[in-house]
Task: structure prediction
Amino acid sequence: MRQLYYAAHLHIWRTADGNEVDFIVEKHLNKGIAYKVKYNDVQLKPTKYKKFLGAYPDFDLGCVCKILTKNNSIAAIRL
Result:
């Protein structure tokens, strides 16, 4: 992430009950992209992030995950 964005634009978000968004990229004031890191994108449950999306409606929620080849080696990391 630091290769893509300035460190000053990277944040994390966590609630008292443990829900978190791993990377928040603020591209403009209160606008940007929020990334959750998962083993694969099937594990992402957007309903778990209603609090975040309600508090920050101008942020899109994305998933960072790896893409495996047929022999289970990593082909790429998808943003």
Summary: Strands lie at 10-14, 20-28, 31-37, 59-68, 74-78. Residues 68 and 75 are 5 Å apart (CA to CA). The chain has one domain: 7-78. Helices lie at 50-55.
